[in-house]
Specification:
This protein has helices spanning 2-17, 20-29, 36-40, 47-59, 78-120, and strands spanning 34-35, 63-68, 71-76. It is mainly alpha-helical. A hairpin with a 2-residue loop joins strand 2 and strand 3. Helix 1 (2-17) runs antiparallel to helix 4 (47-59). The N and C termini lie far apart (64 Å).
């Protein structure tokens, strides 16, 4: 059950990260909290669209939105992105090991070619 929950959370997180506007918002929030208005400024989007993007980031638990007086402030939750990083790290090791094996095969082939070249040369 735990593994299913992790995968489901990853799916939600990947869906949130799939949009360039949301990734730009995350980049902005990586420098510190920002008001919803502050997140809206760099984008040529309606307030309604910005709110939908923020809601998606909140569903993925990447962003927390709190009220400060009349203003809503968004704060990044880096733990949510760390989950993606941890998941991807497993596959990074796989690819690094695969590349190491490929490099060994290529080096062996080069040695055999050099040896064959000396015999025929």
């Amino acid at each position: 059950m735990h593994n299913h929950m992790v995968v489901d959370n990853l799916s939600t997180t990947f869906a949130a990260l799939s949009d360039p506007t949301r990734r730009a918002m995350i980049e902005r929030l990586s420098h510190g909290p920002a008001s919803v208005h502050g997140l809206t400024e760099p984008f040529a989007l309606s307030q309604q669209m910005i709110s939908k993007h923020i809601a998606c980031l909140m569903r993925a638990r990447i962003v927390i939105k709190t009220k400060r007086g009349r203003e809503s402030v968004c704060t990044l939750r880096p733990q949510a992105i760390k989950t993606v990083s941890d998941w991807a790290f497993t596959y990074r090791r796989f690819w690094e090991e695969s590349f190491d094996k490929l490099e060994a095969v290529v080096n062996q082939m080069k040695k055999e070619e050099a040896r064959d070249g000396k015999r025929h040369g």
